[in-house]
Amino acid sequence: MDTYFNLTKKIMNLKVNLFTRTKAISLDEMQIYNSTTGNETNCPKCKGRGYIAEVVGEKDVNGNDTRCYMILKECECLSYKRESIKAKNSGIQPLLEKTFDNFIAKDDWQVNIKSLAEENAKGKDWFFIGGQSGTGKTHICSAILNYQSRNHIRVKYMIWNEDINKLKDFEDNTFIEKLKRVECLYIDDLFKKAKGQKELPNLTSPDIEKTWELINFRYLNKLKTVISSELSLEDILKIDESLGSRIKQSAGKFTISLNKDKLKNRRLA
Question: Per CATH, which fold does 79-268 belong to?
Answer without folding.
Answer: Rossmann fold (3.40.50)
